């Protein structure tokens, strides 16, 4: 009996002005507890794989236990089939432990994609696939390099993505996730899928000051990624683009300095590319950004929407509970539900995905 655990962190993308560029791995981990009985030659389970699940979304329609439909196992099958393995080894059991909230802007789908790619590598014995090559597989499925880059490599990362040709994503065997257009993909035609092009995306890891913690305020409602994308304009005013470019040039330096400079970080966290347009989906977001500042709140550094939201990410060095309470009060004030349930966590930059044997 072979067993191992895959651990993949959640992530916050679009940090401040870094829309689709900058991501931060955070210390909440998706875990896959995998066992394989290689002594068995056959299995009664579809594709030789049995899935069990516990955690966020347990028992809901959002979580499929069918290995042909579950995003994690579909991604693993894609990796296996690119390497001429049609199914999992006989008697593979994947037990998923997921504490990452679904649809809340903490990279749940990105973590699932990264964990799935690692699962394919491990069960297939594909030792030739290094992290950079695994990144290529991730980016054939999840086209947000900031989420998957942070989840795969860990820490505070900047990423960029090379454009794919239409023929690169035309095959229905590729298990496209919700951020890519239909067809959903992942269909087993019996053909070998095309291997991803090399060097689809690249990343650089920035320094993160040890004093800075991330306070995640997680409201109890869902904002689907496709809906959050749909409210963004096709074109932007030059002044707004320049505004973001000025701040994104400051942000990695500001967050890497020790001790942190609160005023510099507060300035560098501002955004005009996505947050103003998502106010309609997250009532109170603009008021939170405008109300919170280092001058009025000791320990506070800056605040931004986490991913597509609705989670709000506040960076701070102290007074975490006080900061969370203020942000929750503003969100409730501007929400139709004045008693909106909100959870908050103090998180730190996390190490990247890894396998424990």
Describe the structure.
One of its GO terms (biological process) is threonine biosynthetic process. Pfam families: GHMP_kinases_C, GHMP_kinases_N. Keywords: Amino-acid biosynthesis, ATP-binding, Kinase, Lipid biosynthesis, Lipid metabolism, Nucleotide-binding, Steroid biosynthesis, Steroid metabolism, Sterol biosynthesis, Sterol metabolism, Threonine biosynthesis, Transferase. One of its GO terms (molecular function) is ATP binding. This protein is an alpha+beta fold. Helices cover 28% and strands 22% of the residues. It folds into 2 domains: 2-203 and 350-356, Ribosomal Protein S5, domain 2, CATH 3.30.230; 210-347, 2-Layer Sandwich (Alpha-Beta Plaits), CATH 3.30.70.890. The chain has 9 helices and 11 strands. Strand 8 (300-305) and strand 9 form a beta hairpin. Helix 1 (71-82) crosses helix 2, helix 2 (108-124) packs across helix 4 (145-153) and helix 6 (238-256) packs antiparallel against helix 7.
Alpha-beta content class: alpha+beta
CATH topology tier name of the largest domain: Ribosomal Protein S5, domain 2
Q: Quote the distance from N terminus to C terminus.
A: 12 Å
The gyration radius over C-alpha positions equals 20 Å
How many distinct domains? 2
Helix residue percentage: 25-40%
Helix tally equals: 9
The CATH architecture name of the largest domain reads 2-Layer Sandwich
Mean pLDDT figure: 93
How does the overall form come out from the CA principal axes?
globular
Question: How do the helices and strands follow one another from N- to C-terminus?
Answer: EEEHEHHHEEEHHHHEEHEE
Low-confidence spans: none
Number of strands: 11
Strand content: 15-25%
């Amino acid at each position: 009996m072979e067993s191992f655990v895959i651990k993949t962190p959640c992530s916050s993308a679009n940090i401040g002005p870094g829309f689709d560029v900058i991501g931060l791995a955070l210390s909440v981990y998706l875990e896959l507890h995998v066992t394989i009985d290689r002594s068995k030659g056959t299995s009664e389970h579809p594709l030789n794989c049995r899935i069990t699940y516990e955690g966020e979304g347990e028992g809901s329609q959002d979580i499929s236990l069918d290995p042909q439909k579950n995003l994690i196992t579909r991604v693993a099958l894609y990796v296996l089939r690119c390497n001429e393995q049609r199914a999992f080894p006989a008697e593979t059991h994947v037990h998923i432990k997921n504490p990452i909230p679904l649809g809340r802007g903490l990279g749940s789908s990105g973590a699932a994609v990264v964990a799935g790619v690692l699962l394919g590598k491990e069960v297939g014995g594909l030792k030739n696939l290094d992290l950079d090559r695994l990144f290529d597989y991730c980016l054939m499925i999840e086209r947000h390099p900031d989420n998957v880059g942070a989840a795969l490599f860990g820490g505070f990362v900047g990423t960029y993505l090379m454009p794919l040709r239409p023929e690169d994503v035309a095959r229905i065997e590729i298990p496209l996730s919700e951020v890519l257009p239909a067809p959903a993909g992942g269909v087993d035609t019996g053909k070998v899928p095309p291997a991803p092009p090399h060097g689809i995306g690249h990343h650089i890891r920035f320094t993160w000051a040890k004093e800075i913690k991330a306070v995640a305020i997680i409201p109890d409602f869902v904002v689907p990624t496709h809906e959050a994308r749909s409210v963004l304009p096709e074109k932007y005013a030059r002044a707004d683009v320049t505004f973001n470019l000025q701040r994104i040039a400051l942000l990695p330096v500001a967050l890497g300095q020790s001790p942190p400079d609160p005023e510099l970080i507060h300035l560098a966290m501002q955004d005009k590319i996505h947050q103003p347009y998502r106010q309609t989906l997250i009532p109170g977001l603009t008021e939170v950004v405008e109300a919170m500042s280092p001058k009025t709140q000791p320990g506070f550094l800056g605040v931004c929407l986490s991913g597509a939201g609705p989670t709000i990410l506040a960076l701070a060095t102290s007074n975490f509970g006080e900061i969370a309470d203020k942000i929750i009060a503003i969100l409730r004030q501007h929400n139709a539900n004045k008693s909106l349930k909100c959870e908050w966590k103090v998180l730190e930059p996390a190490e990247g995905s890894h396998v424990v044997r």
